[in-house]
Predict the structure.
Amino acid sequence: MKLKSIELKGFKSFQNKTKIVFPVDGLVSIVGPNGSGKSNVLDAFRWVLGEQSAKTLRGEKMEDVIFSGTQFKKPLNMCEVEIVFDNSSHTLDLDYDEVSIRRKAYRTGESSFYINNKSCRLKDIRELFMNSGIGREGYSIVGQGKVDEIVNANSQDRRKIFEEACGITKYRYKKEENERKLSRVKENLERIEDVYAEIERRVLPLEKEKEKAEQYFLLKKELKVSELNLILKETEGIVEQIQTDEEELHQREQERLSKELQLENLQEQKEEHDNFRKEQEQLQERMQQQLIEKSEQQQTLTYNIQKNDEIVKSIHTQETYLKNELISLENDVIRLKEDRHKQELLLQQKQGEEKEKQQQLEEMTSKEGEVVSYFKELEERIKEEQKLFFDKTSQKNVLLSKKEQLEVQQKESKTEGTEHESRKTELEAERFKVVQEVEKSCLALERANEEQMSLEQKFHELRGKMESYKTQLDSLTKEYNESQVEVNTLDSKRKMLENMQKEYEGMPHAIKPLMKDLKLDGIYDVVANLIDTDKKYETAIESALGGAIYHIVVEDSFVAKKAIQFLKTNKLGRVTMLPIQNMKAKYPHSAAKQETFANQVVKVNPKYQTVIDSLLGRTILCETIDQAIETSKKYDYQYKIVTLEGDIFNAGGSVTGGYRSKKVNLLANKRLQKEQETLFLQKQQQLSDLQKKREQLLKEEKESWQYQQELWSRLEEKKKQKEELQFQTHQLEQKEIELQRRIQEKTVLLEQLEEKQEQRNSQIASFEKEIAKLEEEQSAHQNLILQKEQEKTSCEQQKQVHGKKLETLRLDAISLLRQIEGLQHTIQIQSDNLESVSRQIAERKRQEQENQERVEQLIAEKEQFSLEKKKLEEESIALKQQLVAQQHKGQTKLESEQQLEERIKQLESEQLKEMRASFELEKRLNKNKMIIDHYNEKLEEDYHLEIGQIQAFYDENANTKKTYIQELRRKIDFLGNVNLNAIEEYAEVKERYEFYREQKYDLTEAMETTEKVIRELQYTMSKEFKQEFAEINSCFQHTFRALFGESGTAELVLVNEEDLLQSEIEIKAQPPGKKLKSIAAMSGGEKALTAIGIVFAILMRRPAPFCFLDEIDAPLDDINVHRFNEFLSHLLEETQFVTITHRRGTMKSSKYIYGVTMEEKGISKLLSMELQEAGDFIEE
């Protein structure tokens, strides 16, 4: 097998599609500058073979392998790498001459693998290359740092390389897989043994209970026949008497109803008379009320007419007032117009004056400019004189500075003397303070003793508190451990239920191997595992489904066919399949849509809805069996109807029902699993709360402990403080002696300072004479400056006069402007007032018009009120006439009402006699019925029958003696408590007992088989590893001498030869001319060459199809590079090599060279080049 090509697209720096073809007839090298992307080719090879570690691929996360973009290129969302192998030798276990491996990845995190463009798993790729030398732990990729890993790696990592080389990786993989399988088998066996032991303990007691239940049912049957025949004899005459009495009672009831009907008719007539009388009274009252209302309305109309007259008079008065006010407002308009005209004339006059002031202002501004120019000339002349004056002043200042310097020195000398005197005084005062500090130190020592006693007391109190914390912690820990046990128990139950569902326990035996062993896409699950429903409907839904609850839902008929072939091939039994694509939903007729159908209460994934609609779409759910009977009849037995207790009324009329065992059904099992999960989470939360309390208490204990340590530290500090105070006293005494010495030194310094002061006084007198001469010259310059300053002052005064005049003119102009603005404002106000008065005039005219309209309206209303008053008077007269007629009619009705009352009294008397006779008859009938009801209650309570149903149990040979019946009851009581479900429970438990016994046997056999396989694999691994390791060691000794020289020696050593499969592997090497030493003591180049020797040794023993070498020659010097390439050339016959290198020697040995460069920053590009062109990429 050879590597033919690798193709990258969007992988790391290879943005564009890049394909590298690898010839098989020579060394291939990939060269390029640092950072150009050479090693990305090697990373691509690792990645496509299934590398899952981002760190190994030199990244932080897996999406880093996708091209991340540059300044000018956008990032890609997908990368893809494909490698192609020549498999004509069929090294890979595939029936293809050419094999391609491809991997795609997206930024969303999705990743997919392909073998020859067919989707596969990562596991398939790893198994394909196992023991080929190309796996993750193999030796076909020797990358940057891999050399160091070989010599510096820990024993476990180093073993992986040698195990791959020895060809035992596939055995280790199988061994680990069998160990995992063995672990699962042991777990299942433990679980089965627990269940088996529990069931075994129940079998024998249930068998005894079953025998007792069978005897109970036999006695109960005999008792039922005897009691029912006894009741038949005792109730035979009573039933006939009841029938006769009921017929007579019915006849009397008919007569009573006839008389009641007559009485009701008379009562209705009487009520009609009463109602008529009441209506007459109400009518008379209404007519009286209407007469009163008419009178009140007449009075109201009279009042309204008078009120209208008054309003008209008021409006006439208001009109007179408005006319006078209108005349006054019109006069105001004339006056305002005259005032506005006067103000406009005054405004024109003020605007003319303002123009004259502006002309005067311009003239004064021109004169002011001439004065300012002369003023500037004077300032320049004064500056020149001032410069001469300042020169003299500067010379004077130099002398004064020197004089002042001497005076300062003199003063400093005096100050220094004063300071020395002061310092002497301070030293004496300091000496006094030292004595006081000694006294303070003693007082501090006493306070430290008191504080130490206080701290010791707190320390003892805290120790007691710590004991309390310990007690609380013990209590909490005990509670926590008990809760932990409870949580573990719940977890075990939860896992048991979960395993029962996963292992398909309680279902037909063919389901489990089909669901677990046949890995076929399109097989989903059994119906029971795909649906959920409320607890209320669990029994009904399971009964409705029947055997269909174990049917398996599949995608289509093709999948069903494969599953059935699998069952036939392995002789596993029969199973019903439900292909989704074949199932047709069943829906009820519109007339039945108001009913509750079974598919409506089932929760299921929409994908499987059609299956559920097909199974339950025409099944109606009813609360009780009576409702089910009515519903069946209602729809003419066209639907299957199921009660909540599981009784079934099939379409067509047949009925299925009876007693159901209390065992948990499949749907309830799922619900119990969820409930156990919820309870488990609640208990976990309680456990977490206890843990938090415990942690809080531990925290408080820790804080107390820290405070205790703090107290202890403070006690130690107080002890140190005592020692420091004693030391301080000694230091103060030494300080007093030092102060006395320094006082004597100050006295000598004061005498020296007095001599220096006399010398400085003579220098100061000489400087004072020179300063006096300079002051005379300076005075002459100052007089000239004063003269020019006077001229400047005169000019400035003239400038101020012009300025004042100019300011006056400006103020006058501003005043005129303000007057103009005031006049304009006044005119505006007058205009506004004129508009306001005009609006008032319009308003008054509008009010005058409204008053006129109001007067006309009031006159019309007055005429209307007069007409209404006349009409009311006429209606009052008519009502009085009607009232007299109604009173006469009422007198006639009263005479007819008296005759009706007499007839009603006669019928009531006859009815009372009839009721007494019926009462006596009903009394006798009730007595007989009570007897029958007593027997009915007894029959219902004991046998769920009625009197009419017991005729079917008549037996002329039945023993109806009461002594015999009592004997039967005594025998039943002697049996004691009877488990009526024992017969069914025993059958069920017995079936489970046999099932789990078979399961236990199968698991025990499977465990023994697996353990045997593990032992055989371990033996094979040990044998082959020992043999291959010895051969690789021999090859390593050969490669080491070839790379280091014939005098060099090296070997691979197993530290523990007794444990071949776990023993560490050490590398011992002795380069020529050096003593034997460990690999760790060798130089970097020697380590690298040793590691290369190990890789070459492995390749000699088990040649890999190809090998990538990533800059492993970098640590080697030129001589060793030559040896490396020379040995590499011998291995090229068996192995295809691709090197990534910077070394010139390796490039020279290469037959083909590919260059990787970055013409655009961040994007790698592949170049095929001649050997000399590769020199540009070599690092000198």
